[in-house]
Structure formats: structure tokens, C-alpha cells
Amino acid sequence: MSGITAAKSLSRMKCVCLFMKMRFVIANLFLLFAIQHCIAQKEILSQPCRNSLRKATVKAYLDEINSKSGLVIEYSSNNLQLADVVETDGNEYSIGQLLQKVLKDQKVRLVEKNNKLILAPSSTPINPDDLMVFYMIFGFVKEGEGKEPMIDATVTETGNKIGLVTNAHGYYSLSLPEGNHQLLITYSGYAPKVIDLSLHANTRLDVEMSLSPALREVVVTHENVKKNGADKIPGDLNADYNYFLGENDPLRSVYLFPGVLNVPENFSSMLVRGGGPDENLFLLDGTQVYNPSHMLGALSIVNQTALKSMQLFKSDFPAKFSGALSSVLDVYTKDGDMQRWRGEANAGVFSGSVTLEGPIVRNKTAIMGSFRHTWPQPYFGLYQIGLKPDFYDIDLKLTQLINKNNKLMLNFYNGQDQLNQTSVNVNNLHKWGNLLGSISWNHLLGSKSFINTTVNYSQYHNLGGYAYTLLGDQEEAVQTRTLSVQSSIAQWNAGVQAEIFLSSKSRLNTGIKFNHTIIQPLETKVSLHLEDGGGGFTPFPALSFNESSAYAEIEYKPSSKFIVKPGVHVSYYQYSDYVNVSIQPRVYAAYLFDNKNQVFAAYNQMAQYLHLVTNPYVGLNADLWLPSTAKLLPEQSESFSLGYTFNNRKGLTFSLSGYDKYLQHVTNYANGSSYFINNKNWEQNIESGKGWCYGMESMLQWSARKFSLLVSYTLSWSWRQFQDINQGEKFPYTYDRRHILNLGMVYRISRKFDISGLWSFSTGDAVSLPGYIYPDFDMAQQISNPDDLLKNYRFIYQYTGVNQYRTANFQRLDAAVNYHSYRTKGFQYVIAAGVYNIKGSPDQYSFDLLGSVNTKSVVLETNYTYYNVMPYISITLKF
């Protein structure tokens, strides 16, 4: 019976999938038919007008069109007021423009059939838009000096307030009615550009922007509704107070946004809106990065000088994204200057970096290279006892302009980390690194379509080792052994993305992607010394899976005040015999009340096939990636967001938003389980459960001539529930920090000097503590002195709940003084001096509990500061 039931279930699943595919095909055929019909009608209306009349009856104009243009217009005298007199001025370039005046207020509708126009009867006057001839104005917005494509530059037709922003490659395409128009192109930090044009055919217009005089205090943006709910993070955002030991890291700006949490003891570092560290998708030039951090998350792999743009998605998720439940961080690096060589170098107490970019062949081929490495650490070691870091980054990008419609880009990144951690009873070694490569082809297909084709490769490896002591019969140290565990993951991707401009008000974003992933989940080695990745590891069979996905999303923008984006992402996943089809609907809508106030709403369903589980017994960097299986189902989320933003266009912005998120199939190690698993039962060691996350976020930014202020606040709740943990009752997630507050300030003493400060605060983490303890008198526990209750007893810990207690609050205070020189002979430098973590506040707490036979107990709180109070100085040279 079970076999029959399974067969029926499989048959039903196949029918559902077939039905969904058929429905998708039918919908696309209908859309294609509608588009083709619209194109045929517009082609007729765009035919040249040969009008010799200036004032005549409707019938006279229609007769002249039929006799001189070769076009047949059929109509019934009962449907039209043929005797009405119409005036024209002779400036009508097309039949559509002429018919707008001739058929004004006539109760007819336009029907195209067999290359003829039929004026059919209608109960309402004809819509002038049906007679308009639209043409595309399209091209790229670039920096005038280096020809770097500008992401999210605003292109607006000033008369009708029709506008959009450029895509990730600087491309725009705007549908406008035939006639005279004025375009306004704006981008923060650049002088606005106004272009007058007379549009009578599809026209390519590439725009080059010039830097405006430095106005650091106020940024004025043009009125337009946001096309998504992303937080845009320029490379210099909050650059005055997001230093880490002299490193101006763009990812640290992300940590200042509400809903984003930086956890230094977690190697993946970032947690968003109550989600886990594995629920964030980090993309570097379209390639997924599995661990984008150095120094326990204090620094990212992105060098600020190589950054072009960065967007954080946590409220809405465009349909092209998948594979993460909580956030997407989409990062693009510079293409390289096509005109001249330039660069930037930075030297601080911790590391040094240099970035160079310039033309190999001017206006044809450009290269950008960035390198960073830690210095030898005598100074760092004075303040950070027990922590010895070493890392490097190499980032290269080659851009080739084949012609005005085609561009190739090659990307390469390699970064490696090694971190030794020593303290009382601690001797850990951690090594990890990323290797990325991609080739991307941008192709401009006509005036309405932009296509981007990519092939990507991403590899991440991770090794963690720790030393432990074996005790003899009298609890004396006999031998030291080390346990080393290494894992890796590699992924190949190939995909095509297209943007198709359907009309002046709508755009279709669509694409397909295929990926193959290979996970080497666990290799272990027990030896006398900490291993650095050599041979002798016990292998674990590789786990591999395939995923195919497609997406479609419509951007409909009826005016500059309103936008709605419905979309769907469909994926097909296969691991061994397990198959999963995921349909993930998304929708985003925003409305601009006036040039200051805007609201938005978003609904998202997301799926994630990779699970990250962190072993609770092997110290830091114990991350293990695992694929979804029939038992370990894909993680899923369903989220709602509602938000409001205020922007007075004079330097003051305020945002307020709320969210509610439900998680399914999130993972945790089962009770009593750990890394020591084998290829037969590893799924049984992983527990699958539910999660709930909800909260409120607000952010205020104010920039004036002398003073800037940033305040972000998060109020949130995050819960987890597993059937066999905490007796099936829900409990707070480990990083359920109720309140998070960031306060940053900058005071500009002059154009050269400024002082800055940043204070970060959050409530403590949720932890588990035993409800009571009792001694174990089993002689195997080697109790040597029953009278010494707190030292020699081996106690049994009885837990009555999970994460029912809180650690102390966390806070950190940083301050800096910055000097900005004037640019002289092409050179400019910035000197930053400051103190990181002035109060030396701990960023991790742990607890232990000791007790007695008389049920008396003592709770001991210990704290650990990964980065203690640390003065620094750094110099950045731009040339």
C-alpha cells in the first residue's frame, strides 16, 4: 500500500508541475500575442504624415490619409461626427500625431486588422494615448572622466515626470511619445545634465556626467518613486566613522543600518532581521561568496577603493534573487578607468592596500587591480593578546569594449585568512579563503532589450583546529592532541538575464540560471600538532546537487509617483534521488505622496537549498554546509514588510518600517550530536524546525554644512522551535537582541579637519543555563575529595529550558580625527587617527555554574573582547 500511495503522490506532483508549466507557457504566449499586436498597430501609426490641410472636416482629413499615405482607414459614418471642423499646424510628423487631433473627443476605438485601421464604435471618447507613437531613447550613463558606468543614475523626462534609474551596468531605456522632450540626468556628487531633443525615431543617447564642486554637506536627489526597497550604500557612505583600525570598510556601513547585526564570534559575521548567518546572499560582481569576511567579520573582502556600488535587500527581494531567506548584498566593483591611470593606497597599523586602474587601450580596454595584506603584527599584538591574524586579498577586473553594443568583463578574486587564537585552555587555528572567477557579456539588443550573460565559479574552503589535553588517572596532563576539521564548497553557475522594455510604463525582467554545486562537508584528522591543511585527513564522501531556475518580473510604473513589481522565481533542485520544485512569488509596491513622503509594501517567499550548521563543541569557525534532502528539507521563508520614508531634499532623511517573517526547516544540531558523523547517519544529527522574526526599524540621517548625524534603532524578536529541543516549546534565538542602537556624528571644523564618533549598543544574547546541578558519586568521575565541594566534584547539569537567560548588554565607542588635504598636482591624501573600542568593552560573554550538595550555586560570568581598546593612525593617498 505504501508503494501505491507513493506512486500516486508522485503522479499528482507531476500533474501539478505539468499544469504549472502549461499555465506559464499559455501566459507567455498570450503576452507575446499582445505585444506583437501592439507593435503592428504602432508601426502603422508611426508612418510619415503627408498632410496638406490646415483646417477641414474630419471626413476630409480621413479621406486625405487614405489617398496619400497608402494606409486604409475604415469607419462608419454612424460612429463619427464627420462634419466637425479640425485645425492642424502642419507639424504632425506621423499619422498617429495627426489622428490625435482629428479624432479628438470622437467615441471610437482603434482596431488593427490586416494592416488596416478600423475605427470601431465606443461608448467613451478615444484615449489619446492609443494614437501616440512612442519611440525609445536609450543608452548608457557614464562618468565623463573615466567612462565608468553609473549605477542608479536617474533619467527623467521633465514634462511628463516619466523617469527611471540605470541598471547595474549603467544602461537605461525610456519610452517617450514622438515630439520634443527635455531629459534631466542626475547622480549624487555630479552636476545635473539637461538635454533637449526632438524624438521622431528610436534614438541612442549615451550621457557622460561631470563631477560637481565638492558639497559634502548636502545631497539633493530628484523626485521619483523608488524602484525597490533596497538600501543603497555608496563606497564613501559614513566614511568618517566606520573605520576599523584605519580601514575604511564599506561593509561596516551596512552594520549601521537597522535590522543588521554584526556578531564578531560568528565567522559569517552578519545577521539580518532575526535570521541565521547562512541566510544572507553575498554577491561580488554576480558571483556568490560563502564567507565575505576577514578578522571574524570585522572587515569584508571588499576593498573600499575598488567598490562601485552596493545594495542591501532585506525588505523586498527582486525575482532574480534566490538562495537566501534574510538578505541579499549585491556588490559591484569598478570596471576600470578608460581614460587615464589613477589609484589609491592606504597604510595603517594593521594592513596596507593599493588599488590601480587605467586603460590598456584607451576607450577600449581597461583594467582594475586591488591588493591588500596585513603587516607583521608587533603593534597589534600589544593590544590584542592571544589573537594573531594574517590575510590578503587580490581583486582583478578586465573590461573590453567590443563595440558600442557589446562589452566583456573578466573578474578574479582570491583571498586567504589564517587566525591563531590562544588564551587560557585555548589553542585554536582557523584558516579559510575564497577563490572566485567570472566572465560576463553585456549585449544591447536593439532599443528595448538589454541582455547580460555570465559564467561564474566560486570556491570556499574552511579549516578549524583545536588542541585538547588527555588526563591520566590522577587528572594529570598526559598528552596533548589536536582535532582538525576541514570542509569546502564549490559552485559553477551559468545564466542569462534580460531587461525588455515593453512600453513607457512597463518593463519585463526575466532570466534563467543553472548551477552545479559540490560540497566536501567534513574531513577530520587527530594528530599531535595543529594542522594547516596538509594530508592525512579522513575523507567524507562529496555531496553534489544541481539547480535550475527561471524568473520573471514586471515593473509597472503608471506615473512618477507609483510603481508595482509583481514577480515569480521558479527553481528545480535535485540531490541524488530527491527532487524539489519551488515557486516563490514576490511583489513590491511604492507610492510617492509628494516630493518628501513615500510609503512601500513588500511580500516575499524565498527558498534556500543550502544549510549551514555550526558545531557547538569545536570552538570558532566550525561551519558546515549541507545540501537539502528528503529528510533535511529546503529552508523557506515568508515575509511581509511595510515602510515609510521622508526626505526633505535638503539633507534630512527618515525611515520607519516594520516586518514579519516566518521560517520553515531551519537547522540545528540535534541534542547530543556533534561533528563526529559518518556518511550513513549524518542527516539524523541535524534537527529541522521553525522560526518567527518580527520587529520595527527606524533610521534618521541629517547632513548640514558643519554637522552630520546618523541614528538607527531596531526593536526585534526572533524565535526558534524544534520538536526534540526544549520539549518542543519555542525559545529565543541565540542572537535575539531586543534593542540595537547606532549613533554616529561628524563635526567639520573646516574643509580639511573633522572629528567623528560612533556609539553602538545592543542588548545581550540569549543563553542556556542549568536550572540545578547535583554531584555524581560514580567513581569513574574521579572525585578525589568529597569535602571540597566546588573544586573537585564532577557535577551533572540539569537544563530546564533553552536560551532562557540573557548576557550583559554590549556596547562600543569609537572616535577619530580626520584630515583631508586639497588635491595638488593630481595628489590628495587623508590622515585618520582614532581609537577603536575606547572603553575596551567585551563583545562576547560566556557563563558557567558551580554548585554544592546543599543546592547552593554560583553563577560565574566571563567576557571576551576580540578587539580591545586600540589606538590607530592611517594615511590614504589618492593619485
Give a quick precis of the structure.
The protein is mainly beta and 879 residues long.
Q: What's the mean pLDDT score? A: 80
Helical content (DSSP H or I, runs of 4+): under 10%
**CATH superfamily membership of the largest domain:** TonB-dependent receptor, beta-barrel domain
CATH topology name of the largest domain:
Maltoporin, Chain A
The total count of helices amounts to 5
- Rg (C-alpha, Å): 32 Å
Class of secondary structure makeup: mainly beta
Give the amount of beta strand, in percent. over 45%
CATH architecture annotation of the largest domain: Beta Barrel
Distance between the termini: 76 Å
- CATH class category of the largest domain: Mainly Beta
Number of strands: 55
Integer tally of domains:
3
Poorly predicted runs: 1-40, 215-222, 616-620, 777-794, 849-857
Largest sheet geometry: 22 strands, antiparallel, barrel
Instruction: Based on Cα principal axes, name the global outline.
Output: globular
Describe this structure in words.
The chain is mainly β. The chain folds into three domains: 1-41; 134-213, Carboxypeptidase-like, regulatory domain (Immunoglobulin-like), CATH 2.60.40; 243-768 and 803-878, Beta Barrel (Maltoporin, Chain A), CATH 2.40.170. Helix content is 8%, strand content 53%. It is built from five helices and 55 strands. The strands form 13 sheets. It has a 22-stranded antiparallel beta barrel. A five-stranded mixed β-sheet has the order 14-23-24-19-20, with no helix packed on it.
